[in-house]
């Protein structure tokens, strides 16, 4: 058999030789190229091999040799590290799927992915290769690479077996395989096995550093603290600035802490923190405790902030300790936030209970109940921990808190749910009812305010002060509703039960005077104003000078000119802001005393001192009258003409027109007189002055014997409305008005409509339309009311014109018809005769201008409104807030801040609360972070019933902390706001969530 094989072999060789001989010279070159290329490949000259074998393929027709050449070309692309090696290798497999080189090719593809650290693809291709068919050297590479890739993919058991196989059988990979096997043992918690190996490897130059590192970690994890400390110091001495140094410092800090060596623990933890921006929470909790034990509360706070969270028990404990450390540095606001956070989670119920207890007690102690939790947190504690050892203390605290809370409605709800409230609670209830009434009064809810004050008074004498104050403020409320008799009764009751030293005693006298004044009970008003003037100690107050002006008015009404003049002098002396009215009235009094030259001189002085006075047109008119009384008609005519030219819409313009006509007539200028009278009729049709002008015209035309011209003019007026007034018209209207005054609204509306049907152009048509509108307005039928009020305005002669204009402005503003609202208020400003009407018009114009962002106009109108003498505090706050916003928009920040600071003084008002927020926001925008922070913290302590602006302010506080680089505080306040805010405004929710998303990145 062997012979046969041998012969066969010789025969084949002979055949090959024969065949080769037959090829000829042209076939010799490809074979030589193939052999050269293969030799280069085996010599690792992969570039030369690729080039030579490529040339071979171009010339060769030997398919078997080409297959081998393609393999070597593909393999060379791997060995040369070409970027497209994987593509070339995979193309080879696609072309020769059955090639006996398949195992090598799959190994090369897996190794290429291994080099790219694409572990999953590397493992896939390694699995496609049968390691048994690889060369011995490649088998070692295959096993190590597969083991390492498995380790990276988390397949630690597979990797461990492969590394162990290499450690036993491979010289090349002994050390790395041993190291990684120890590493896997370490990860699996087999510390004894791992440490034994690392002890051997610590003498290896390549693995010494990592071995010492794992030895330190292993000893620490085995709780061999002394050995771990020694190993750690050894590591740091050998590798002082290594990337693992921070972890070694952490281990040392932790080990020293567990040994009770607080100072060494702090020292090493500080080194850890110096190079680690995201330290472990457990270590920071320990560092925080260590700092606390040494009395370093500020650093304790910084450490605990890293650990505090609401996601686990450790974080809850850190929040609890954080709150305690905040208390140590008197940072009550942040202590509240920390205790609140710790109480909101239940990982450790005992911590939750103590945290909630601390939170509740601190709320009462500091009055920092941001969203009025002062009551609800106590209730929450009693509900969650009914058997707590703190229950009695919390119950006592609840009673005390009800006395001090600013969330009066919540407090009242709590009391009303009590079955048997004691005297202290009823006393508290009386106080709360009064406070609720005061808040309703501030908010303009007068009917609700009266109900609250009634309830407080009806409880009797549990809290006498609250009862007495309820009388005063109920009187104030009745006054605002024009119910003067009821207001008088309450003011008198208040004055009878209070002492002169009580806060509102002098205010009650002043307000009582005004109530009598409005009722035209001038004798009573005089007594009240004089009592007020003698009682008031602060003579710089506007009310003091205003009272003297009213005293002067009453003396003037009673024609006691000397006393009137003295009163006006008192007003002028004590407050310059009241002087223009007082000086005008003094001049007027001189005229009444027939001292016309003195009157003229006084008016001239007054007009020079106050060129922008609201009484300037009145002063000119009074001067013209004084000149006429001195028979200086020709001197009066230019003044009257100026009034008509410069102040055509003044309330004295019609009188000036009539007087001008009379003066021209007296000066023997009948044509000029006719022109003046006609102007009055044409411009002020249906006014009383127009009637006088018509009558005067009749006399002039009769004097100049031109009755025809008079008749033509009179007929052009239409319907003879002005010339004749029906007595039946008057009686019909007065009957309808009488029904209205009795409070029979529906009957009054019917009567007014019947009057208008009978006298659509009657002289009282404007008033009838007004009452119809007022009845509809009270029924919230605003469309009917609006139409009726507009009819009143168009009539031109209604005594209720200004009331109609005010209500039209209010309705149009509520409907968003800003321009129509503005026009109504502007017209009211033009026609207003009283200071109250002017203030109402100015406030309306201010609101519209603010909504239209007309900043210059807002500033102008607000300034004019604030210059008025008797303006309510809430109107002053509103005007200052609007003006501050306009100043901010126009870049006048200092002026804005001044207004905001004044408006922010009363946080019970919505304007005050918003002003607080805007102040903080302005400080933040200008980079005054400390001021912004203190502004919000001050608001939190002061409190406000307007939760929306409190929430906005806390968001500003969070932004402030973020701007200061304190992300923890920024996040903490947002999380507390999210947990405690009960409002549902979309903008607040969005701002909180957006900011938390950014902070959590």
Provide structural commentary.
Keywords: TPR repeat. TPR repeats lie at residues 246-279, 281-314, 506-539, 545-578, 654-687. InterPro entries: TPR-like_helical_dom_sf, TPR_rpt. This is TolA-binding protein. Pfam families: TPR_16 (PF13432), TPR_6 (PF13174), TPR_8 (PF13181). The structure is a single chain. It is built from 54 helices and no strands. The protein is elongated. Mean pLDDT is 85; it is low at 1-26 and 720-727. Among the domains are: 641-725, Serine Threonine Protein Phosphatase 5, Tetratricopeptide repeat (Alpha Horseshoe); 732-762 and 764-831, Alpha Horseshoe (Serine Threonine Protein Phosphatase 5, Tetratricopeptide repeat), CATH 1.25.40.10; 904-1001, Tetratricopeptide repeat domain (Serine Threonine Protein Phosphatase 5, Tetratricopeptide repeat, Alpha Horseshoe). It is an all-alpha fold and 1001 residues long. The two termini are 81 Å apart.
Chain-wise SSE layout:
Blueprint: H1 2-23, H2 28-42, H3 46-59, H4 63-79, H5 85-95, H6 102-115, H7 119-128, H8 136-152, H9 156-169, H10 174-187, H11 191-201, H12 208-221, H13 225-238, H14 245-259, H15 262-275, H16 281-293, H17 297-307, H18 313-328, H19 332-343, H20 349-366, H21 373-384, H22 391-404, H23 408-416, H24 423-442, H25 446-458, H26 464-480, H27 484-497, H28 505-518, H29 522-535, H30 542-557, H31 561-574, H32 579-592, H33 596-609, H34 616-629, H35 633-646, H36 653-666, H37 670-683, H38 688-703, H39 707-716, H40 727-741, H41 745-758, H42 765-778, H43 782-795, H44 801-814, H45 818-831, H46 835-851, H47 855-866, H48 873-889, H49 893-903, H50 910-925, H51 929-942, H52 947-963, H53 967-980, H54 986-999
Helix pairs in contact: 2-3, 2-4, 3-4, 4-5, 4-6, 5-6, 6-7, 7-8, 8-9, 9-10, 10-11, 11-12, 12-13, 13-14, 14-15, 14-16, 15-16, 16-17, 16-18, 17-18, 18-19, 18-20, 19-20, 19-53, 20-21, 20-22, 21-22, 23-24, 24-25, 24-26, 25-26, 26-27, 27-28, 28-29, 28-30, 29-30, 30-31, 30-32, 31-32, 32-33, ...
InterPro entries: TPR-like_helical_dom_sf, TPR_rpt
TPR repeats: 246-279, 281-314, 506-539, 545-578, 654-687
Keywords: TPR repeat
């Amino acid at each position: 058999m062997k012979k046969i094989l041998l012969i066969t072999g010789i025969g084949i060789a002979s055949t090959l030789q024969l065949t080769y001989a037959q090829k000829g010279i042209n076939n010799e070159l490809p074979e030589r190229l193939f052999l050269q290329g293969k030799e280069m490949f085996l010599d690792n000259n992969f570039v030369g091999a690729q080039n030579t074998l490529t040339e071979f393929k171009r010339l060769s027709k030997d398919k078997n040799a080409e297959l081998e050449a393609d393999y070597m070309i593909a393999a060379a692309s791997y060995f040369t590290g070409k970027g497209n090696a994987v593509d070339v290798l995979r193309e080879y497999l696609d072309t020769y799927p059955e090639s006996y080189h398949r195992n090598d090719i799959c190994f090369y593809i897996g190794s290429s992915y291994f080099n790219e650290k694409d572990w999953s693809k590397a493992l896939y291709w390694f699995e496609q290769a049968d390691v048994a068919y690889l060369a011995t050297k490649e088998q070692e590479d295959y096993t190590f690479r597969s083991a390492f890739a498995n380790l990276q993919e988390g397949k630690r058991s597979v990797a461990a077996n492969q590394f162990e196989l290499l450690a036993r059988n491979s010289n090349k990979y002994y050390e790395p395989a041993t190291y990684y096997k120890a590493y896997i043992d370490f990860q699996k918690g087999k510390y004894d096995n791992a440490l034994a190996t690392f002890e051997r490897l610590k003498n290896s130059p390549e693995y010494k550093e990592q071995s010492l590192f794992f030895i330190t970690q292993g000893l620490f994890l085995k709780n061999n603290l002394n050995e771990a400390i020694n190993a750690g110091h050894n590591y740091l001495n050998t590798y002082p600035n290594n990337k693992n140094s921070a972890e070694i410092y952490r281990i040392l800090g932790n080990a020293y802490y567990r040994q009770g060596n607080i100072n060494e623990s702090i020292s090493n933890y500080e080194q850890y923190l110096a190079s680690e921006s995201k330290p472990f929470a457990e270590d920071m909790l320990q560092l925080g405790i260590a700092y606390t034990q040494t009395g370093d509360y500020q650093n304790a706070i910084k450490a605990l902030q890293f650990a505090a969270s609401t996601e686990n028990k450790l974080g809850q404990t850190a929040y609890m300790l954080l709150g305690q450390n905040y208390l140590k540095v008197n940072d009550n606001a942040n202590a509240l936030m920390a205790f609140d956070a710790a109480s909101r989670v239940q990982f450790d119920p005992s911590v939750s209970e103590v945290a909630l207890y601390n939170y509740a007690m601190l709320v009462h102690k500091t009055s920092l109940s941001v969203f009025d939790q002062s009551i609800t947190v106590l209730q929450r504690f009693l509900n969650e921990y009914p058997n707590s050892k703190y229950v009695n203390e919390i119950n006592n605290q609840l009673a005390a808190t009800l006395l001090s809370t600013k969330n009066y409605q919540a407090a009242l709800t709590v009391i009303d749910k009590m079955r048997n409230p004691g005297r202290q609670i009823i006393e508290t209830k009386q106080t709360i009812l009064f406070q609720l009434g005061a808040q309703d009064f501030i908010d303009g809810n007068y009917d609700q305010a009266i109900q609250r004050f009634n309830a407080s008074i009806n409880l009797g004498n549990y809290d006498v002060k609250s009862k007495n104050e309820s009388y005063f403020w109920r009187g104030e409320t009745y006054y605002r509703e024009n119910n003067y008799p009821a207001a008088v009764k309450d003011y008198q009751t208040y004055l009878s039960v209070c002492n002169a030293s009580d806060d509102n005693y002098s205010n009650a006298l002043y307000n009582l005077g005004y109530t009598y004044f409005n009722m035209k009970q001038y004798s009573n008003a005089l007594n009240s104003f004089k009592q007020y003037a003698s009682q008031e100690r602060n003579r710089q107050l506007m009310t003091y000078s205003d009272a003297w002006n009213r005293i002067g008015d009453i003396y003037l009404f009673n024609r006691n000119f000397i006393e009137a003049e003295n009163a006006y002098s008192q007003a002028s002396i004590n407050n310059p802001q009241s002087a223009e009215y007082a000086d005008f009235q003094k001049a007027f009094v001189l005229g009444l005393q027939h001292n016309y030259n003195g009157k003229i001189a006084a008016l001239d002085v007054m007009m020079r001192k106050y060129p922008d006075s609201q009484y300037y047109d009145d002063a000119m008119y009074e001067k013209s009258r004084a000149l006429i009384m001195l028979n200086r008609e020709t001197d009066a005519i230019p003044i009257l003409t100026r009034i008509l030219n410069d102040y055509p819409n003044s309330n004295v313009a019609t009188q000036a027109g009539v007087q001008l006509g009379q003066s021209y007539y007296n000066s023997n200028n009948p044509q000029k007189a006719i022109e003046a009278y006609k102007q009055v009729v044409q411009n002020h049709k249906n006014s009383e002055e127009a009637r006088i002008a018509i009558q005067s015209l009749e006399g002039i035309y009769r004097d100049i014997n031109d009755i025809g011209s008079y008749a033509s003019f009179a007929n052009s007026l239409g319907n003879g409305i002005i010339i004749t007034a029906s007595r039946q018209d008057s009686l019909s209207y007065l009957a309808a008005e009488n029904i209205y005054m009795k409070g029979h609204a529906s009957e009054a509306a019917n009567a007014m409509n019947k009057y208008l049907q009978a006298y659509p152009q009657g002289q009282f048509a404007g008033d009838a339309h007004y009452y119809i509108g007022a009845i509809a307005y009270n029924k919230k039928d605003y469309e009917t009311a609006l139409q009726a009020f507009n009819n009143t305005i168009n009539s031109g002669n209604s005594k209720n014109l200004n009331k109609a204009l005010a209500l039209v402005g209010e309705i149009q503003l509520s409907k968003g018809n800003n321009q129509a609202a503005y026009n109504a208020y502007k017209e009211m400003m033009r026609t207003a005769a009283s200071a109250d009407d002017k203030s109402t018009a100015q406030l309306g114009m201010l609101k519209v201008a603010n909504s239209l962002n007309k900043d210059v106009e807002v500033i102008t109108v607000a300034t004019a409104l604030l210059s008025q003498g008797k303006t309510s505090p809430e109107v002053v706050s509103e005007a200052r807030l609007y003006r501050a916003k306009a100043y901010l928009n126009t870049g006048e920040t200092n002026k804005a801040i001044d207004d905001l600071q004044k408006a922010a003084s009363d946080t019970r008002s919505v304007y005050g609360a918003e002003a607080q927020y805007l102040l903080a926001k302005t400080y933040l925008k200008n980079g005054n972070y400390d001021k912004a922070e203190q502004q919000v913290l001050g608001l939190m302590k002061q409190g406000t019933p307007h939760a929306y602006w409190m929430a906005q302010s806390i968001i500003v506080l969070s932004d402030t902390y973020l701007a200061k680089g304190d992300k923890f505080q920024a996040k903490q306040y947002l999380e507390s706001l999210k947990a405690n805010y009960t409002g549902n405004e979309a903008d607040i929710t969005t701002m909180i969530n957006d900011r938390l998303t950014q902070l959590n990145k």
